[in-house]
Amino acid sequence: MDYESFFKQRLDQLHAEGRYRVFANLERRCGFFPRAYNHRVRGEVTVWCSNDYLGMGQHPVVLDAMIDAVRTLGAGSGGTRNISGTTYIHVLLERELADLHQREAALVFTSGYAANETVLSTLGRSIPGIAMVSDARNHASMIAGIRNSRAEKHIFRHNDPKDLERALAGLPAERAKLVCFESVYSMDGDIGPIGELCDIADRYGAMTYLDEVHAVGIYGHRGGGIAERDGVQHRPTVIQGTLGKAFGAMGGYIAGSVAVVDFIRSHAPGFIFTTSLPPAVAAGALAAVRHLKHSQAERDRHQERVTTVRERLLAAGLPVMPSQSHIVPVLVGDPLRCSAISEALLLRHRIYVQPINYPTVPRGTERLRLTPSPMHSDGDIDALVDALGDVWPRHREFTLAAA
């Protein structure tokens, strides 16, 4: 086999379909978020697609905690948690996360993806005869975990409690079951009916696994997520979250009972054999979690900015997709046009918005995914609306091939 030709052919196909991914090569300048220096255009751009939703990655409380930890504890963690990679910072962070979700225990991973893949594959592989029942639009990390568990899987229609009931009713009552779903779905911005899904899961004797990655820090009176906001935080068996989005650091975690968390700690290869987070990263995350438990200012400003952006874009006649959350998707519907609009925003207006194409979203639903932050000013919003008004009609029939 000609391996090099195989790789080149597949890459050429991505280019032809407008799905080739180009990194932005940004240099975030501390204290100037949402501004960043773009090395491609050699100038400052305004970022409108960061998952650092609240700007906590540059908050002084977080920075000071990380700097102090580096000076006190050094750079690396020293290994896996089982050998020499557990520090008192990791322990404090897990206690804080357990408290955030009102659970007995928590366990920190190197990323949200690692948490989902590791936990779901371990549960599916370890519990005899378990059936994994998954929302049709769950994140790739959840899909990977379920697939890698090699357990029997069933898919229910997105955010559809009745279809979940159909799936569970078809399984033997005595059989172990795990229902997996998210709170905020990151591409459409819709929100799962957590309470209803838990009601049905309980009725059929199933455990529940809730991914709150795009909600923690942002929703709830302490930043516990949609489940906290809706008063159902006690319902899911396991809550999974991230430290790399609204908390502005890096890492993922689960929270649950002592038994389930200790089971994962003791049985999950993806946890056991992975070097732990550097203590400075854990310290920054710890500071962010503590801060957002007590500060509502960031959440209030965030929601106001999201509402303002959505209303301004709709008033400008742009095809803003329905969203119940802080995600503001603008439908383009074609991968080549989506990439062209993103390119024009960058080159003509110094606005960075990454195009979202298949397989991240279904074909025909390609979009710009905007994530307003508390740091975006009225002037930034004006510039965004004007820029989209300029490039949208220019690229109505645009294809990269024609360029």
What does this structure look like?
It contains 14 helices and 14 strands. The strands form three sheets. Strands 4-10-9-8-7-5-6 form a seven-stranded mixed sheet, sandwiched between helices. A four-stranded mixed sheet has the order 1-2-3-12. The protein has a three-stranded antiparallel sheet with strand order 11-14-13. It is globular. It has helices at residues 3-16, 60-73, 88-100, 112-126, 140-149, 161-169, 194-203, 226-229, 258-267, 269-272, 279-294, 297-315, 335-349, 378-394; strands spanning 26-28, 35-38, 43-47, 105-109, 131-135, 152-156, 177-182, 207-211, 238-242, 252-256, 328-331, 351-352, 355-356, 367-370.
Give the tags.
14 strands; disordered C terminus; 403 residues; alpha/beta
Instruction: Please tell me how large the radius of gyration is.
Output: 22 Å
N- and C-termini, Cα separation? 35 Å
| Oligomeric status | single chain
Report the biggest beta sheet as strand number plus sense, adding barrel if it closes. Answer: 7 strands, mixed
Given helix and strand content, the structural type is: alpha/beta
Shape designation: globular
Helix residue percentage = 40-55%
Residue windows where pLDDT falls under 50 for at least 5 positions: 398-403
Blueprint (SSEs and pairs):
Layout: H1 3-16, E1 26-28, E2 35-38, E3 43-47, H2 60-73, H3 88-100, E4 105-109, H4 112-126, E5 131-135, H5 140-149, E6 152-156, H6 161-169, E7 177-182, H7 194-203, E8 207-211, H8 226-229, E9 238-242, E10 252-256, H9 258-267, H10 269-272, H11 279-294, H12 297-315, E11 328-331, H13 335-349, E12 351-352, E13 355-356, E14 367-370, H14 378-394
Parallel strand pairs: 3-12, 5-6, 5-7, 7-8, 8-9
Antiparallel strand pairs: 1-2, 2-3, 4-10, 9-10, 11-14, 13-14
